[in-house]
Description:
Layout: H1 2-24, E1 27-28, H2 35-45, E2 51-55, E3 67-71, H3 76-89, E4 93-100, H4 114-124, E5 130-133, H5 135-146, E6 151-155, E7 165-171, H6 176-186
Parallel strand pairs: 1-3, 2-6, 3-6, 4-5
Antiparallel strand pairs: 2-7, 4-7
Helix pairs in contact: 2-3
Amino acid sequence: MRHLKTIIVIISFAFLSIFTYSCTQPEVVQGEVTWYEVLEQDLHMLGHRNWILVVDKAFPEQSSPGMKYLYVEEDLLPTLELVLDAVDKSTHVKPIIYQDRELSFITEEQVPGIEAFRSAAAKTLEGRGVNTLLHDEVFKMLDESSSLFRVLVIKTNCTLPYTSLFLQLDCSYWGPENEKMLREVMQ
């Protein structure tokens, strides 16, 4: 009987360990579904305070349970264009765009091709408000958000530093002015 209790404790511990590990690991999507199909499906569930990141190849896999990773064998800016188009077509969210401040300080001598990237990125983001933050500040925001809200990370084959773009989703049909007025009325 004592051996049976020991075996039950060991099996229980094993299941608990597996369950805990699976609940704390980020979700990585693989298989027959295209990344764009996953984006379209997930976009219906994402709302304000969720994030969509379109990142370079060196972007780290994080351990937060709210992170979902898609790897695409495509360049960053064409991928970003498709993501922005999908978000723009949605009826419920709009992007608040963040870009690393470090990107504007990198020289062509340091990273060949960075000028062409900056120029193409400016065209892709033309007419959109883009907030620049230090890379670590963006990570702090993501760290806070990913413990409560989903973050969809679309990892591209781009190998230029500080080129990732971060889209914080906001409600497209209820803005800060509406919220401020509502809070004033509620007092």
